[in-house]
């Protein structure tokens, strides 16, 4: 064996055996956090991906890793690379490598090990470290609380297990692990990133998710404090404002905080702000009729399991060369996110449509009437992309012209209503967003257009 090979094989960064642990897995132990006066007063967090060595702002915050794992994978591969930067902050929460319910137990164990190893490493370099804790199912309890001393301060996040974005909360799953944490660790205090569930016991330090987000980092050079209240939408822009405002691709907060709970984000549910979502769930055999503000009507058939199986659209979506009036869509349910998806291809009836019969039982009528001023607009580009992924069909108005986005067998078709010469067949949502309307890309206006009909 050469000296080079020997050094590689015995490198502590390969073996990861520098820090003593307990139990058969020898998960490293993070030393107990020694709180200083004011450590938990007006506490805010800053995400690891927003920390900068050259930026002296927000050094009074604690650094968190409640992010997609790829945003901080370097702390495992090159743990020394961020030391000088992290030393400057009030404290660091140990990296929260994901422990999803659906993960193989070996991966859950590995990610727990990485969490504690990085925390122990940072502590060995003089950084104040607080363990962040995640868990999977009950079988993970034998290792997911290892490496944390009794009476330690710990950190958890409820964001991904709370109800938001068409997802039910995962409270039952979360509280099982949380109560196990209380029994095993008896923590001195628990930092809770995002609102705690009412059932949570213990000395909880609530850290407001919103106040710790980029929206309130208004002394950051990228977000001038003078205009933060306007950028964040707290106040309308002044009429005499000479700032040039541009739009682009901004991920919603749902794409930021990750790590625990279901990898799929929990069960789908109708969005309270979108009453038309109610048509996808109902009593077996029911047919639900939804009247859209633009006069269109959808008839949705509910299957045996209480979920939609088929939908009839009483419209040609202003693309008669693609759709008959009416036409049908079979509906599948995404096994991952659990949301409804219109199956391709849709079913046209050029010679007249058959009766839209209920599933096994006599059709029952349930009408959903939306108010004429109902808002179906896209809040974010990500929201639009999910609609496209579900094969949703959209009509919108821009500069007094109506445009349609529909899904033929191949690709996504966008066109001005009844003007086939304006058609563009796109390969995916990003390609659709490059469609130019009056000299402007759809990407730059999709969150501003008036959506007049939207199926997903």
The number of distinct β-strands equals: 25
> What's the rounded overall pLDDT mean?
87
Task: Give the helix level as a range of percent.
Answer: 10-25%
Share of residues in strands: 15-25%
What is the CA-based Rg, rounded? Answer: 26 Å
Low confidence ranges: 219-232, 242-256
User: What structural class results from the helix and strand content?
Assistant: alpha/beta
Structure description:
The chain is an alpha/beta fold. The chain contains nine helices and 25 strands.
Question: What's the short version?
Answer:
The protein has helices at residues 3-9, 12-15, 74-77, 83-86, 105-124, 171-185, 228-231, 381-389, 429-432; strands at 21-22, 27-28, 45-47, 62-64, 91-93, 99-100, 129-130, 153-157, 189-193, 204-207, 260-261, 287-291, 297-302, 308-313, 327-333, 340-342, 347-348, 365-369, 394-398, 401-406, 412-416, 424-426, 436-437, 440-441, 450-454. It has 456 residues and is of the alpha/beta class.
Q: Any key phrases for this structure?
A:
456 residues, seven-stranded mixed β-sheet, five-stranded antiparallel β-sheet
Write the layout of secondary structure elements.
Blueprint: H1 3-9, H2 12-15, E1 21-22, E2 27-28, E3 45-47, E4 62-64, H3 74-77, H4 83-86, E5 91-93, E6 99-100, H5 105-124, E7 129-130, E8 153-157, H6 171-185, E9 189-193, E10 204-207, H7 228-231, E11 260-261, E12 287-291, E13 297-302, E14 308-313, E15 327-333, E16 340-342, E17 347-348, E18 365-369, H8 381-389, E19 394-398, E20 401-406, E21 412-416, E22 424-426, H9 429-432, E23 436-437, E24 440-441, E25 450-454
Parallel strand pairs: 3-4, 4-5, 5-7, 6-11, 8-9, 9-10, 12-18
Antiparallel strand pairs: 1-2, 12-13, 13-14, 14-15, 15-16, 15-17, 19-20, 19-25, 20-21, 21-22, 23-24
